[in-house]
Every structure is written in structure tokens, then in C-alpha cells.
Design goal:
By secondary structure, the chain is mostly helical. It is built from four helices and no strands.
Amino acid sequence: MIDSMTHRTLLTAVRRLGSEQQECVVLRFLHGLTVAETALVMGKKTGAIKALQYRAVRSLARMLPDDLRA
């Protein structure tokens, strides 16, 4: 379970992403959509969603403090 401080830190980092990366992360991880479903919602191909998600997760990892990285 994510404690409230970790949750706030993560949400702050997500807000710093670009709008498309934010949307991708929210759809994939908060709403639990598949890559195909996310592609449909965002009007993109699945390969584009995979790349967008990869870049977003990498950006988030760089923004988070060392003690929150797994």
C-alpha cells in the first residue's frame, strides 16, 4: 500500500509530465486500461502507446527521490 506521502510525491511527478504522457499513465495505471484500449481512447496506434508509456515511466523514475525507486 502506498502511504499518503508517497502517493502525493507520485501524483506531483505525474503532473509534471507532458499532457499525452499524463493521459497515458492515468489511463493505463489508474483506470487499468490495456494498451489497446488506451490506444483507442487516445486515437493512437498500440506501438505509439507503448513508446509513450515507456517514456513516461522513465521520466517519472528520474523525478522520484532515490528512496522511492524500486
